Amino acid sequence: MKENEKRINESSKHEQLDHYRVDDSGKDLTTNQGLKMSEDEFSLKAGERGPTLMEDFHFREKITHFDHERIPERVVHARGYGVHGEFEVYESMKKYTKAKFLSEAGKKTPVFVRFSTVVGFRGSADTVRDVRGFATKFYTEEGNYDLVANNMPVFFIQDGIKFPDIVHAIKPEPHNEMPQASGAHDTFWDFVANNQESAHQVMWLMSDRAIPRSYRMMQGFGIHAFRFVNEDGKAHFVKFHWIPKLGVHSLVWDEAQKIAGKDPDYNRRDLYDAIEKGDYPEYELGVQIIEEKDEHNFDFDILDSTKIWPEEDVPVQIIGKMTLNRNVDNVFAETEQVAFHPGHVVPGIDFTNDPLLQGRLFSYTDTQLIRLGGPNFHEIPINRPVCPFTNNQRDGYHRQTINQGKVAYHNNSLAANTPATVPKEQGGFEHYQEKVEGRKVRARSESFKDHFSQAKLFWNSMSEPEKMHIKQAFAFEVGKVKNKAIRQQVVDMFANVDLELATAFAKDIGATPPAKGGSSVTKSSPVLSQENTMKTAVTRKVGVILNNGFNDMDVKTIFDTLKEVGLHLEVISEKQGEVTGENGVQIMVDHTFTTTDSVVYDALYIVGGNGENKKFHMETTKFLHEAFMHYKPIGATHDGKKWLVENEMATSKGVVATDDINKFATLFVEAIAAHRHWDREII
């Protein structure tokens, strides 16, 4: 009887749930209130290039629902790591902006920076192929200013109303919640093929920029056009750039995948260790500035977030330097509770009508309300400004301020109408008075419709190795797509960028190569290629393979020389403890072959010794082959040279083998500074 009741109850429960099971395919698109919508691509604006209007109930419902979809980790940028530092201005920017933190040369401002991946959950790996966040909070005397940047200067979409769509598409597929932290699946590429404004961003995502070697070697871009406004009320359009002093460098894909398994914390560990060692990461802040009168003088719309401002057309002016010099004391209290928002501005910095930026100005505050438990997230220590804040806001979840007095409204006479507003002449913020007119429309300006010219510009700017990596990335990512029709759509789409590119990966994924296509753009921008970046060996990590009986006098001299130029050495051997040289010199072992791997080093230095056995020989050979296949610099002296001869690598590019210790050190440092040796013949 009880079993029958149980089956009946289970059946009833199943039937109750049937009401909530909905298949959206083939249905009309409606709001959550059942209202059919005629448009879902564009937010409501005052004119095609005007600002987004607050009355856009559809946008607000869609973005609000999206912002509240995850509890409690961030919907995007969940996997992050934060550090403290300071920003110093090189020269006064008063000509362009009245922002005080940019007002005088030498002025310093404390900052907090959070680096992150976009797609993966908080427990995902650091080295996945993804866009990286680069968010900076400036604690200025006029309030907090947040520069919420990415390591790529463009984005997938042009309008904030589509942000839920791109994230839903690239996140794990909902029926099985796979794959984690990856775009290599059907829904992402279906979105790309059917939303072709994503073409430029996808080219960056398939490039080496998507797998940075280190947060210390990664650019940051504000993406949007903002405004600088000076004391006279004159405005200029501005874009922001963070440029790492160590240059911009990346992993190779096979290496990135292996690191994800060997050390999923690779990028955050690298950042933490560098700061602990005193190798403080440095980034220069650059700005691109366009006068308002030149807004329409380009072959692209400067408010389109899927476009860059080519540096050949709009040079980058370096105006300051940021130094990251202190790790957090508590990751949750600081890194996880920090709240960024592009709407956190100071006098002298204002917005434009970029429709993606306009959407973000609403979305971020809404997101913090659910993530951080209410409207008082600004009172959490990491978010609290260094200047006082006073207003008539009261109560709410997690209120920390104990407000005195009985007046909490404006206007009032009981408190002499305080807190009082501040005239702009005395530092009060006033929005830039841009003239706006137009019909209320859900539309996009015609000037936003070219989706392929800058994607082609990016392709033209790549070196041959970088182009090869992009082809391989497309072959891997699109090759993971199960639906053959989607694969073909992607091939056909990117034929509009470059016929050679589309043909190459079409053959790899079993799609039909395009018969025609390709953009006619011939322009290139050399600064987009990482081959043209700063090259230095400073702070690079070298794995040194040692065993008992090594030539200790020469090796000690080489160690001292390499350390003097800023390299960090880790000794690898069979066992923990110490290895002893032929003259009795002892060197501490940092890792065994079991506790580390060649992929976590920038270079290998193989010394060996006379205490070798079969296992040592096999493990060293494995390390050597992996480093060689990843185009890394390899050095060998004394007993170590036999591995290079044995594996026919001694004369290969980026391989240094000599017992002349002064010559070795010089050549090895040069090889490490080059980062990778792409012209190496892989055997």
Automatic annotation (TrEMBL):
Gene3D superfamilies: 1.20.1370.20, 3.40.50.880, Catalase core domain. One of its GO terms (cellular component) is cytosol. GO terms for molecular function: catalase activity; heme binding; metal ion binding. It catalyses: 2 H2O2 = O2 + 2 H2O. Residues 1-34 are annotated as: Disordered. Keywords: Heme, Hydrogen peroxide, Iron, Metal-binding, Oxidoreductase, Peroxidase. It is an enzyme of class 1 (oxidoreductase). Heme binds at residues 74, 114, 163, 360, 364, 371. Residues 1-27 have a biased composition (Basic and acidic residues). Pfam families: Catalase, Catalase-rel, Catalase_C. The active site is at 77, 150. Its EC number is 1.11.1.6. SMART domains: Catalase. Its cofactor is heme. Residues 30-418 form the Catalase core domain. PROSITE patterns: CATALASE_1 (PS00437), CATALASE_2 (PS00438), CATALASE_3 (PS51402). Signal peptide: none annotated. Belongs to the catalase family. HPII subfamily. This is Catalase. It comes from Ornithinibacillus halophilus.
